Amino acid sequence: MVRATVDDPVSDAPFQGGAGESGQWLVEALDPEQRQAVLAPVGPVCVLAGAGTGKTRAITHRIGHLVASGAVPSGQVLAVTFTTRAAGELRGRLRTLGADGVQARTFHAAALRQLGYFWPRIAGAALPRLVESKIALVGRAASRARLAPSRTELRDLTAEIEWAKATLLTPEQYPAAATAAGRETTHPPEVIARLYTAYEQAKREAGVLDFDDLLLLTAAVIEEHGWVAEELRSRYRHFVVDEYQDVNPLQQRLLDAWLGERDSICVVGDANQTIYSFTGASPRYLLDFPRRFPEAHVVRIVRDYRSTPQVVGLANRLVARVGTAGTRGTPGGSSAPGAQGTHGVAGAVLAAARHEPPRLVAQRPDGPAPTFTEFDSEPEEAAATARRIRALLGAGVPASEIAVLYRVNAQSEAYETAIAAAGIPYLVRGGERFFERPEVAEAVQLLRAAARSADTDRPVGLVAEVTEVFAALGWRGGDPPNGSGAQRERWENLAALVRLAEALVAADPGATLDHFVADLADRAVHQHIPTVEGVTLASLHAAKGLEWDAVFLVGLAEGTLPIIHAQTPAQIEEERRLLYVGVTRARERLALSWALARHEGGRRSRRPSRFLDGLAPRSASSAGRPAGGPAHPGVDGAGALRSRGRAAVRCRVCERPLVGQAARAGRCDGCPANIDQALFERLRAWRSARAREQSAPAFVVFTDATLMAIAEHRPTSVAELVGIPGIGQAKLDRYGEDVLALVDGREPSG
Ligand code: ATP
Ligand code: MG
């Protein structure tokens, strides 16, 4: 039975589920470890487990079971997570388990509701307006503080103020804390502290609050007003937090305020999926939970239900390398636990990896091997991805079961263009505001009007009523219009609403238009969008907690993943965890790809992400653009792609096969030159002497580049000498012996 959730944060939500139901079926659908989490008595519970092990499933079943068995009234449960999408996912799953009276919200949504309720009684006025984005106010504060940051600096400064607030630092405390945490900032910490003060002042003057204030104020109100604490705590008695590895100190403070001295709290998380530590989040709360609550039931799950053994194997290999990405080319480079402002994220994750069984054990049957593909340019990568998606659709994979995931939102454009050109419907996760789309808003309005009208001539059944209303908007069921333009998008959005009505009827055959309208209103409030039939384009951050049959991880090149500004070992590790999150989103098919140049015909100077070192099959890390045969292998190709079959010249630093200029130089562009400086100096001195003898300029003997290549290669034979660019037969005859002697540390006889 689906009903709108209760709006009043302190009144009792309707009790759903029924004390008579034992909820036994909720337990039967689980494995022994998940059952432990579900059946642990009311009190502290902590589930520490890797991706796809059913953590979210375990907590929703735990709530469902507590409610169905009558142990806990649904209205007393507050489940929190971090994104509206994840909160929607939680609500959806709870609903199907008969626990729809449970509040499942983001921290912000929960705080907004509570503060909006209590504030007028505390301050005698409505809650001040919330500013959606800080950046304009920070800009104003910056000019007041006589700073003129560039756009990117302003963005970084805003992020820094956000970090300070998320970690509960005042402007006075900021400089010392930022230094201790090794924050890399555009301005000196003292200047940022001044800006932070000016920002707070600008905000006060404008009479607005930011999102961090919302959490802080809610916590403060509970801490300072006994009656607020009492009212709230009598309302919410049981707390559940999903993705707890990404909680920040500010959110933790609010959680503590909600909890008070009680201990009915269930947290689940995976330290290897910590991807927000640079905004102040820290997995230490998750990992320290058993210390904080020594009587806690701690459950560890290793069975992975989401992905095939092939995908799980790749995820395991990736996790096994945590802490080894310090410096490119130095395997095992340090990742300095506790360094660089992560609250010891790297250390915590390493510790977790030591204590937790590090490997996931796949439960699903075998599937295709993940593919690794290198492309000449980004547009080629995007076009090939679109073609592969086409092939999948042709093979019967639904569009909503396919995702393209990237590191930064700016990457989405190339894929939107390519996918639209291929006539494939898609939706961009994160950018969408489904319920604000004109056709959706109009449809909801018409449905509301139809629900109110006393028209007795309506068709029978909710779905028929909905399709009739949509007919007034020109929508017809059946096949979608061709292409992927605006018309197709409109059709798909309305079709998604029809599917919602169908799902509602499936769950509750007696559901009426009133129920549907209430459900839509609830979804709109929570931005819980229905599944639109289209390929998902999303950033790796936005993909957390979600899953698809086929996942394309694109743009896996150095500078993009890890992102160019990730410099410290801790930052690099966070980037690796992002890839781990990406890999573990795939149920069956996983395609990893990268491009060597940004534009078609551009310089192919990029390198595959360092995280793929040792993960990609050897032949795939070659210049493995598909050659011959089918131009673009499907995601279900046999793993590595064929290389072009050229005789491979390998980089002497990283051993990657080389082509073109890089092959001539014997080293990738990006690899550090390893020049023997002393030899280089000796070669230069020798060259000057020979040039003087010939009364010729030095470069006539050898150019600097050739000398550098010699000092780098240190050739020990004639064969090696001729491999060096700039040394032909004439120079070999003339100077070969001298050079070999110099390399050998002897005096040249000439
Ligand atoms: P993430 O870390 O990515 O958030 P998770 O640990 O929360 O993952 P879930 O999303 O709960 O994992 O589960 C992953 C998938 O495995 C889901 O499709 C879920 O329905 C399925 N699943 C989980 N547990 C079981 C089980 N015991 N039997 C069958 N399927 C299961
Ligand atoms: Mg989950």
Automatic annotation (TrEMBL):
<dbReference type="Pfam" id="PF00570">
    <property type="entry name" value="HRDC"/>
</dbReference>
<dbReference type="Pfam" id="PF13361">
    <property type="entry name" value="UvrD_C"/>
</dbReference>
<dbReference type="GO" id="GO:0016887">
    <property type="term" value="F:ATP hydrolysis activity"/>
</dbReference>
<dbReference type="InterPro" id="IPR027417">
    <property type="entry name" value="P-loop_NTPase"/>
</dbReference>
<feature type="domain" description="HRDC">
    <location>
        <begin position="673"/>
        <end position="750"/>
    </location>
</feature>
<feature type="domain" description="UvrD-like helicase C-terminal">
    <location>
        <begin position="339"/>
        <end position="588"/>
    </location>
</feature>
<dbReference type="Pfam" id="PF00580">
    <property type="entry name" value="UvrD-helicase"/>
</dbReference>
<keyword id="KW-0227">DNA damage</keyword>
<dbReference type="GO" id="GO:0003677">
    <property type="term" value="F:DNA binding"/>
</dbReference>
<comment type="similarity">
    <text>Belongs to the helicase family. UvrD subfamily.</text>
</comment>
<dbReference type="GO" id="GO:0005829">
    <property type="term" value="C:cytosol"/>
</dbReference>
<keyword id="KW-0238">DNA-binding</keyword>
<dbReference type="GO" id="GO:0043138">
    <property type="term" value="F:3'-5' DNA helicase activity"/>
</dbReference>
<feature type="domain" description="UvrD-like helicase ATP-binding">
    <location>
        <begin position="28"/>
        <end position="308"/>
    </location>
</feature>
<protein>
    <recommendedName>
        <fullName>DNA 3'-5' helicase</fullName>
        <ecNumber>5.6.2.4</ecNumber>
    </recommendedName>
</protein>
<feature type="binding site">
    <location>
        <begin position="49"/>
        <end position="56"/>
    </location>
    <ligand>
        <name>ATP</name>
    </ligand>
</feature>
<feature type="compositionally biased region" description="Low complexity">
    <location>
        <begin position="616"/>
        <end position="630"/>
    </location>
</feature>
<dbReference type="GO" id="GO:0005524">
    <property type="term" value="F:ATP binding"/>
</dbReference>
<keyword id="KW-0378">Hydrolase</keyword>
<dbReference type="InterPro" id="IPR013986">
    <property type="entry name" value="DExx_box_DNA_helicase_dom_sf"/>
</dbReference>
<feature type="region of interest" description="Disordered">
    <location>
        <begin position="604"/>
        <end position="639"/>
    </location>
</feature>
<dbReference type="GO" id="GO:0000725">
    <property type="term" value="P:recombinational repair"/>
</dbReference>
<dbReference type="InterPro" id="IPR000212">
    <property type="entry name" value="DNA_helicase_UvrD/REP"/>
</dbReference>
<dbReference type="InterPro" id="IPR014016">
    <property type="entry name" value="UvrD-like_ATP-bd"/>
</dbReference>
<keyword id="KW-0413">Isomerase</keyword>
<keyword id="KW-0234">DNA repair</keyword>
<dbReference type="InterPro" id="IPR014017">
    <property type="entry name" value="DNA_helicase_UvrD-like_C"/>
</dbReference>
<dbReference type="GO" id="GO:0033202">
    <property type="term" value="C:DNA helicase complex"/>
</dbReference>
<keyword id="KW-0067">ATP-binding</keyword>
<dbReference type="InterPro" id="IPR010997">
    <property type="entry name" value="HRDC-like_sf"/>
</dbReference>
<dbReference type="InterPro" id="IPR044876">
    <property type="entry name" value="HRDC_dom_sf"/>
</dbReference>
<keyword id="KW-0547">Nucleotide-binding</keyword>
<keyword id="KW-0347">Helicase</keyword>
<dbReference type="InterPro" id="IPR002121">
    <property type="entry name" value="HRDC_dom"/>
</dbReference>
<feature type="region of interest" description="Disordered">
    <location>
        <begin position="360"/>
        <end position="379"/>
    </location>
</feature>
